[in-house]
Amino acid sequence: MECEICGSDVKGNPVRVTVEGTVLDVCSKCAHYGKPQDKWMPVSRKMTPTEKIIVSYKPKRDAFDKLDDEINQDYAQIIKKAREAHGLTIEDLASKMMEKATLIRKIEREELIPEDSIRKKLETTLNIKLTEKVSSKDQRSGGFIRGTTLGDVAIIRKKGK
Q1: Do 35 and 70 fall within a single domain?
Q2: Residue 74 belongs to a domain with what CATH number?
Q3: Is residue 118 part of a domain?
Q4: Interval 40-55: pLDDT, tens
Q5: Total Cβ atoms within 10 A of residue 57
Q6: How far apart are the first and last CA of the chain?
């Protein structure tokens, strides 16, 4: 038998060692490269009864069920008018809301649409309403005015044979 590391003939019984997770039969000179393998122990094949796991699936909710309100299209003007009516600068409003002034500036310039948490803070601080009720019928049936699509702009040419 040959040593699986150096390839020399093994005199006597080979030593079984583990080298980086691999079990090898090696000569006594190469045995120090790995950890000695303990005697092989068979794995028990007893099957233990397992409990049946009952998995119940909850029906997925429609995303439109959660949406009752939609933010106004002119939210930036509403915020700016209310802020100026209260006599606040952007920095004053930001400090009252515990937010950054740059965030308020971006919202007023319509660079950002305010998240729900920011929208609620704006509504309570300025005593305004930034959302409007939208019926679920409009949301589901596509009752909104359709914008320009690729099909409206693209010129489709047919291949000539």
Answers
A1: no
A2: 1.10.260.40
A3: yes
A4: 656 666 666 666 666 6
A5: 5
A6: 73
Angle at CA 80, nearest 5°, toward 77 and 83? 145
Global pTM? 0.45
Q: Distance between CA 110 and CA 129 in Å, rounded?
A: 17
Which amino acid would we find at residue 52?
K
**Which token pair is 118?**
């920011």
SS3 of 98-116 = CCCHHHHHHHHCCCCCCCH
- Please give the backbone phi and psi of residue 52, each rounded to the nearest 5 degrees, phi first: -75, 130
Structural domain range at position 113: 64-141
Cβ distance 3 to 27 under 8 Å? yes
**Which residue has 């150096």 as its token pair?**
6
Q: How far is it, in rounded angstroms, from Cα 84 to Cα 82?
A: 5
Count up the domains in the chain and report the number.
2
Same domain for 75 and 137, yes or no, is yes
Q: How far, in Å, CA of 134 to CA of 125, rounded?
A: 24
Tell me, yes or no, whether 107 lies in a domain.
yes
Query: Does residue 29 lie in a domain region?
Result: yes
Ranges of the chain with pLDDT below 50: 139-141, 143
**Residue 23 belongs to a domain:** yes
